[in-house]
Amino acid sequence: MRPSKRPNDAMRDVTMDTGVSRHAEGSCLVRFGNTEVLCMASLEERVPPFLKNTGKGWVTAEYGMLPRATGDRMRREAAQGKQSGRTQEIQRLIGRSLRSIVDLQALGERQITVDCDVLQADGGTRTAAITGGFVALSECLKWMEERSMVKRHDVLLGHVAAVSCGIYKNEPVLDLDYAEDSTAETDANFVMTGAGGIVEIQGTAEGAPFSEDEFLNLLKLARKGIGELVETQRQVLGEH
Amino acid sequence: MRPSKRPNDAMRDVTMDTGVSRHAEGSCLVRFGNTEVLCMASLEERVPPFLKNTGKGWVTAEYGMLPRATGDRMRREAAQGKQSGRTQEIQRLIGRSLRSIVDLQALGERQITVDCDVLQADGGTRTAAITGGFVALSECLKWMEERSMVKRHDVLLGHVAAVSCGIYKNEPVLDLDYAEDSTAETDANFVMTGAGGIVEIQGTAEGAPFSEDEFLNLLKLARKGIGELVETQRQVLGEH
Amino acid sequence: MRPSKRPNDAMRDVTMDTGVSRHAEGSCLVRFGNTEVLCMASLEERVPPFLKNTGKGWVTAEYGMLPRATGDRMRREAAQGKQSGRTQEIQRLIGRSLRSIVDLQALGERQITVDCDVLQADGGTRTAAITGGFVALSECLKWMEERSMVKRHDVLLGHVAAVSCGIYKNEPVLDLDYAEDSTAETDANFVMTGAGGIVEIQGTAEGAPFSEDEFLNLLKLARKGIGELVETQRQVLGEH
Amino acid sequence: MRPSKRPNDAMRDVTMDTGVSRHAEGSCLVRFGNTEVLCMASLEERVPPFLKNTGKGWVTAEYGMLPRATGDRMRREAAQGKQSGRTQEIQRLIGRSLRSIVDLQALGERQITVDCDVLQADGGTRTAAITGGFVALSECLKWMEERSMVKRHDVLLGHVAAVSCGIYKNEPVLDLDYAEDSTAETDANFVMTGAGGIVEIQGTAEGAPFSEDEFLNLLKLARKGIGELVETQRQVLGEH
Amino acid sequence: MRPSKRPNDAMRDVTMDTGVSRHAEGSCLVRFGNTEVLCMASLEERVPPFLKNTGKGWVTAEYGMLPRATGDRMRREAAQGKQSGRTQEIQRLIGRSLRSIVDLQALGERQITVDCDVLQADGGTRTAAITGGFVALSECLKWMEERSMVKRHDVLLGHVAAVSCGIYKNEPVLDLDYAEDSTAETDANFVMTGAGGIVEIQGTAEGAPFSEDEFLNLLKLARKGIGELVETQRQVLGEH
Amino acid sequence: MRPSKRPNDAMRDVTMDTGVSRHAEGSCLVRFGNTEVLCMASLEERVPPFLKNTGKGWVTAEYGMLPRATGDRMRREAAQGKQSGRTQEIQRLIGRSLRSIVDLQALGERQITVDCDVLQADGGTRTAAITGGFVALSECLKWMEERSMVKRHDVLLGHVAAVSCGIYKNEPVLDLDYAEDSTAETDANFVMTGAGGIVEIQGTAEGAPFSEDEFLNLLKLARKGIGELVETQRQVLGEH
């Protein structure tokens, strides 16, 4: 039995609120249970040097955690003078995931930066960030469409969402919370498109190595969870 | 006429929500109009080196802004590898202000760190942070009292709150929002106790120097605003 | 009785020597008693990016302390790899104070940087730096006038000087030295123009909060002290 | 056809030379074709703070590239003052992979650091580093066994090796070199034990998302490659 | 008697292998006994800002040590976030030494960076780096000559090599290894041209000061050693 | 003819003022012509970790330049976040030079840090710093002797001073000023004891290599100059 009493294939309650920032061109406060991530998409009329004069744009992400988002207070990265390896790894993953469903040519020479800041952490912050980051990015493209800068569906090739799965007490379970995550034998993050294509897989044996069969079970759970997340994205974005 | 149509001596709508974090020992989401600051107080059983074996504790603060809390996205301080001079100046001010109403001896050899993170900025982030930081600190002391660690009112010597005032189009006005702050001739921040004592004054002529009379007008406005803020603190903390 | 036997409203001996650097366009070694600050103004034909092509110039300041300017040796900031929050706070204050009496348009697209380095500290280093920094800046503008680059009095709108006051053993005193500063209940820095306008006020309760009356007493002392400092500036700059 | 003319399921020539350092307790120069990584294991009688007095040891890894290991010279990370996100991501992966086959209790309170420095890069540097890093670690444990510090096979629970696979021109191929890696549609790194258990999977769609079937084909290739790598490890370590 | 049994005026075995990098325009793996330094010269079509539009090029060097090049593992400079004073001192010396025999005008507006990375250290790493760095630089110029970019002998004004000498147990000895270096009373590094001119001398009394006569004995030994090194450079570069 | 009209073997006017700091245990403001260096020796009752419990002390030095000590303003190292390679090289040299005449055992487990800060630069700042640093160190030892902590002459084994020489317009000259230093063909720094022993030699060919004879001429000039400097040290320290 999971600590949260959820069935093995059940997501936590998921909400995605848009329009939560007066300033950002697109924003979304995403919750996976008690995990809360504030995602804000900022449009800038500039691109990184390697894209200058190519006609192509860029989508990138940054990730942060408030110091007391976690059970024990962590040191503030700005005060330490550097981002941890974990932070950099996560923000690279978010950026790659979002770019996987964007046509950078159709975006034009502009950059959209999606800031994902964890207000409260209870496991799955990176998957919530990708899922909510997609909504913030979509809102930003709506904002641009309203100003006739782009057609949103020329730029967006589909939906993208993410979920973590793991083997907890020998059973494959969907959407690990912190209590599960910290004791799971295996932990895997899946990023998939609305059409079911795989964008990124990261699986790690925390204890004993895992087998191909175990891994396929996790993938099956992920597919179910991501299907539900994309459905919520569609509702929130008014796509029905 | 102020851009917000407020009378010269009127505060913006102020709210202070407590219990907004599952993890922090004390927390408060404070809003001065569209300015939103999340304050979380963290208790740690350690003190800075200069207080070891003195029997005295410490209260300190850290301040940050989400990159898109502002109209234009700012660079993330963690990515830049250092905190700006402005950030350091503000967090030093918050810490001094909170310590002004704390008996460090009564706290015992423990540290409370109050993190003030600006989710949305519209002027007055430092004054909102001090005002909400006091509430988070009080909540943390309640949490400690419930566990018989301290008596809250042995540690807290009073209330502390802060507000900014300025001379806008030649008139003294209370609680500047961003539209006013960015064009005010003079800008002053006042930190005062519930009993009316002055803890900190910072007044700056942005344009022409100001006179003693002008300054005394600002101080009078501040006294009114801080009185209202302390009243709200009392309600929120259930002190009636 | 003050440790230095000075009357409550007496400044320490103040000297300002100009022409102390062969290289700087303007320089001043200022002494407030045993506090010694070397101020050097450097002219550069460039401006910060935000002023490019605006026709306006910039005046800025940097502040430093030799490691053994103080009673105990402090770590060298260059070796630590960063400037402390205190250093940044002070250099921002010096810069704002000097800009308050400069017409940046009349200066033209050039930058003057005033370096204030404390050779010996005995309280009041920031107020000495502002007062001596003004002299170095004036000397730099003389140098420019001699080369027909600007008219000095088109650029300089007045004089600016600063002094600290405090409540020491329940009495308001002028120009705190280190022995007073480290035990004063309240400490306030005042920056004022030669014409008596207030440029900056920073008052802090180190112990108990202070009252409006106490504050007004400090302001009165400051006005006296700054009057004397401006008189010395005038003599040194040959303005009689 | 692959640029290197290799069949789709063929590894590059792999060599692992041990004893290449006079100083390190264990060392291995591993080559996957033109990719060369020098792996050195250093034993230290200390552990990170979180393991003090637990009786458990630690295995960690650091990764670096010589500036001209690549086609174009890269900036030296030591000169830039920080390790890139990519470097940190890779060294965290190497460390996790090596710890997956180590009994930290049996190691005792000691740390082994495995430095993996890329002398020449032609794709697959992280997989070569894990594979060669295992050999250096084993050599270090042999060194310790000779001094009766541990029994090598109490500490080592098995073998670990890694390989990258990808979809190149629509075909799944084993052990990508740089020419393939830079144009592959999908790129996946697999870390597996000698017994066939999966330790880590990282799959990324560089272009279009990939399907479950495609992924399973890559996993099958990886299993073949890693089998060959473990066989080479056994020969080099004299385990037949 | 020297620990290595060498006569006082004997170099260690010296080898210089060229063509050891697929990527670098010039490369040399130089060995002075057990000291091994990998030197790679990289050509870039850009110059430092102070040389823009002067028609002159630049030759510079960077130096690094693998963490376990030494008897005890040293911390990785990239992880520490800065290069040590020793590293900077050495790379400045290598750069100056190489520029002493280069006509920067004849090179044209291009930069050659010579990276010298110590794979294994046993004393004399800086002198090996200069000696091998010259070979890598020469190979790079050959590469340029083959592409008709420059005439190699227009750019190279001669040969340059370096060796350390010292007073070990009261006797002047040539080419100190680590066992000698760490206990020598005096340690001196000499950089000389193939024609016998002195480019750089650095002599340091580790214990008691040394006399002019002692110093001249060291210089004499250096002249012999550098003569042999230049002879090896000539052979390796095919100049006979 | 030298720009300063000095004969080739003449030093600039040299002065050394002691007692220039109220705080430092020993201090000296040294001038070599227009070069001014403020040297302050600080005694601390602690040693670096590698000397703990050895009974031996340590002498070290730090070097800095005020930003406008030079003809053009240089960036402040504290603001840049690191010390340049040049700064580190110089402070290592000063430290080694001072330690050459100190018996660290006789000093006991204490550290003396000699800060050398250049107030004005006109060539020869490092040699002035060593020469004046010795005086500050001696003053510090006097201070300790007065408190019966050590016998000054047990700790100090002799005098140490330094001077630069160079080949300027084909002639060997003593004590280069900036005008000479910036165009000299060869530049050499010599550190010697009062007894004439050589502590450190650093000679660099800025243009063409130099010969042994040229070098010996420079050494002869250095011996003369250092003799004069040590005589001045003796007078200033009251040793006649």
UniProtKB/TrEMBL annotation, chains A, B, C, D, E, F:
PROSITE patterns: RIBONUCLEASE_PH (PS01277). Its EC number is 2.7.7.56. It catalyses: tRNA(n+1) + phosphate = tRNA(n) + a ribonucleoside 5'-diphosphate. GO terms for biological process: rRNA 3'-end processing; rRNA catabolic process; tRNA processing. Phosphorolytic 3'-5' exoribonuclease that plays an important role in tRNA 3'-end maturation. Removes nucleotide residues following the 3'-CCA terminus of tRNAs; can also add nucleotides to the ends of RNA molecules by using nucleoside diphosphates as substrates, but this may not be physiologically important. Probably plays a role in initiation of 16S rRNA degradation (leading to ribosome degradation) during starvation. Gene3D superfamilies: GHMP Kinase, N-terminal domain. One of its GO terms (molecular function) is tRNA nucleotidyltransferase activity. Phosphate binds at residues 86, 124-126. The keyword rRNA processing applies. Coiled coil: none annotated. This is Ribonuclease PH. Homohexameric ring arranged as a trimer of dimers. The keyword rRNA processing applies. HAMAP family: RNase_PH (MF_00564). The lineage of its organism: Bacteria, Pseudomonadati, Pseudomonadota, Alphaproteobacteria, Hyphomicrobiales. PANTHER family: EXOSOME COMPLEX COMPONENT (PTHR11953), EXOSOME COMPLEX COMPONENT RRP41 (PTHR11953:SF0). Keywords: Nucleotidyltransferase, RNA-binding, rRNA processing, Transferase, tRNA processing, tRNA-binding. Belongs to the RNase PH family. It comes from the Bacteria. Residues 11-138, 160-225 form the Exoribonuclease phosphorolytic domain. InterPro entries: ExoRNase_PH_dom1, ExoRNase_PH_dom2, ExoRNase_PH_dom2_sf, PNPase/RNase_PH_dom_sf, Ribosomal_Su5_D2-typ_SF, RNase_PH, RNase_PH_bac-type, RNase_PH_CS.
